[in-house]
Amino acid sequence: MPPRTLYDKLIDSHTVARLDDRAGPGAEILLYVDRTVLNEYTSPQAFSGLREAGRRVWRPEAALGVVDHVNPTAPDRGAAMPDEGGARQVRYFGENCRDFGIELLDVLHPLQGIEHVVAPELGFVLPGMVVAAGDSHTTTYGALGALGFGIGTSDIEHYLATQTLRYRRMRTMRVTLDGALPAGVTAKDAVMALIRRIGASGATGYAVEFAGSGVAALSVEARMTICNMAVEGGARGVVMAPDAAVFDYLADKPRAPKGDAREAAIRHWSGLRSDADAVFDREIRIDAAEIEPLVTWGISPDQAAPVGARVPDPDAEPDADRRRDLARALAYMGLTPGTALESVRIQRAFIGSCTNARLSDLREAASVLRGRRVAQGVRGMVVPGSSSVRRAAEAEGLDRVFTEAGFEWRQSGCSLCLAMNDDVLAPGERCASSTNRNFEGRQGAGGRTHLMSPAMVAAAAVAGHLTDVRRLAREI
Amino acid sequence: MHSFTTVTGAAAPLPAANVDTDVIMPKQFLKGIDRAGLDRGAFHDLRFAPDGSPRPDFVLNRPGWEETRFLVVGPNFGCGSSREHAVWGLLQLGIRAIIGTTFAGIFADNAANNGLLLVSLDPGAVSALLARAADPEGNRLTVDLPGETILAEDGTRHAFEIPPSRKDALVRGLDAIGQTLDRAAEIRAFEARHHAARPWLAR
Ligand code: SF4
């Protein structure tokens, strides 16, 4: 057999049937999918479709339902939703999970949280799996050695009814991160650097494998940040070869195999890697030592710059289409060309989302905030990625670090990442945010989002404007 | 699913790069449990002012684009969130095909699953069609899927290509789930082998 990439191996081992006579990228296959995670807002029409057609769910135990997008995150947690639409979705989701036999982590469940934070915590996603779910950030599971990718509602219905998808093979891209990240630079900066380099559609049509010494040196949680946000570069599926760090991560996870089953699984998982001479359709190399803390200044995740840079000038852009898009981005963001990014004042600081609200993220932010106060005129919020993260953070006193610094310590959910609940920016409000999308209106109509690492959000909250977290570190 | 053969109508230009699904279907329209009412949501914040009145400068609100059936768009259209509501809303607005250079992956699959045709052309052809779509007098196109051509009123043609299986599904408006369930025995046999080799999966 010719050398294969990890992606090829995962696809080959999950191919039920070929649906056309092509091979390689673009070939259509019937793909077996091991697991899905469902949420309240992309699943209702899929369940309605099943009900109308009188179809059952093929393998209910392979699905997990999590309420995360619409629920409030007020510290005092109740079952009430912020509005009737959200309440109806949560009610219908509950009925669907019950009627079709799917386990549900409802708002008041002690394990509730953002689906991409909860599923790994449970050990619901394991190396070698193919996981497709109704949310684009399903790519997160690449960090565990699974192939994760997002699907729409029609495909959720197809998955639920058949345990498969009609799937077109992607091209493959390998992103090699060489060396160690400098102090003050995080996995978030690394993935933002990649997106800045390849553009918001640079990986469209590709499944991306992350590799290299820079990835091997990262914790599993940091790897999840990279895989999660790779979708903002267009990656439709993401994988990383699972290693001892992943096996250790899984050791105490409730649904991961234990004892002899674990030994057998590890033997199998250890073979999940690209062959040494496998050929990728595209190769990118990034030198970790050259990455700086990044912030976005525009309305697309690739519109980012080192925090020490200035707002770009549309007039310096030779391409007319790009000049127009750039001018539009700056107009929306209320930024003047040439302004130092570090002088841009913020009113909100948000630490949360499936990209950056795991325990390690909260620790990093808290280490910046310890003994400091949020600047006057800044409202800071911490929304832990899950209820488990929240409890673990409280057990080590991080909640007090945040509240003593003037941050709100809230319950888990998607919250201000997409503002489907009552956590919203007011028009014109500017937010330093550890989330993944700076789209127009994403955090509220007219709201202005600057993406960065959680430590950088904490630093901005203290300074009252965007700032280089390494500056604060020097002050200690 | 909508079936698509040949459609004639006006085209509208949306040249910006990276038009994301948050812009195509803002979050306030994601609170339903059905597909109703998404025509109002499509491009809502571009189409309507905060008071709900149509923005006169947005192309779909201008004379000459009342019956728009096609969008000619910039690169990476449909990026971001997986929300299929974006595709449902565009179809409810009357959009039947979108012509551009590149489309985001999940959006493209959602479009295919609902009979919204996406046509990928090279940048030169897209620029030519953007110019045409921007002219209220000359913005009518005919998109012929079986013939894989876009025909303008002055006789200009642009050929496009689409994978045969995707074309067949669009033309016939097939029920993908029904087709897959015809292979249920094959799936069950695969699943048994798959789990036998990985007993830790079969919980
Ligand atoms: S936290 Fe944000 S990106 Fe992640 S699932 Fe929720 S809304 Fe989507």
From TrEMBL, chain A:
One of its GO terms (molecular function) is 3-isopropylmalate dehydratase activity. [4Fe-4S] cluster binds at residues 354, 414, 417. Its cofactor is [4Fe-4S] cluster. The keyword DNA damage does not apply. It is an enzyme of class 4 (lyase). Keywords: 4Fe-4S, Amino-acid biosynthesis, Branched-chain amino acid biosynthesis, Iron, Iron-sulfur, Leucine biosynthesis, Lyase, Metal-binding. Residues 9-464 form the Aconitase/3-isopropylmalate dehydratase large subunit alpha/beta/alpha domain. It catalyses: (2R,3S)-3-isopropylmalate = (2S)-2-isopropylmalate. HAMAP family: LeuC_type1 (MF_01026). Belongs to the aconitase/IPM isomerase family. LeuC type 1 subfamily. Heterodimer of LeuC and LeuD. Catalyzes the isomerization between 2-isopropylmalate and 3-isopropylmalate, via the formation of 2-isopropylmaleate. This is 3-isopropylmalate dehydratase large subunit. It comes from Methylobacterium oxalidis. The lineage of its organism: Bacteria, Pseudomonadati, Pseudomonadota, Alphaproteobacteria, Hyphomicrobiales. The gene is leuC_1.
From TrEMBL, chain B:
Belongs to the LeuD family. LeuD type 1 subfamily. GO terms for molecular function: 3-isopropylmalate dehydratase activity. Gene3D superfamilies: Aconitase, domain 4. GO terms for cellular component: 3-isopropylmalate dehydratase complex. Catalyzes the isomerization between 2-isopropylmalate and 3-isopropylmalate, via the formation of 2-isopropylmaleate. It comes from the Bacteria. Its EC number is 4.2.1.33. One of its GO terms (biological process) is L-leucine biosynthetic process. This is 3-isopropylmalate dehydratase small subunit. The lineage of its organism: Bacteria, Pseudomonadati, Pseudomonadota, Alphaproteobacteria, Hyphomicrobiales. Pathway: Amino-acid biosynthesis; L-leucine biosynthesis; L-leucine from 3-methyl-2-oxobutanoate: step 2/4. The keyword Cell inner membrane does not apply. CDD domains: IPMI_Swivel (cd01577). HAMAP family: LeuD_type1 (MF_01031). Keywords: Amino-acid biosynthesis, Branched-chain amino acid biosynthesis, Leucine biosynthesis, Lyase. It holds the Pfam family Aconitase_C.
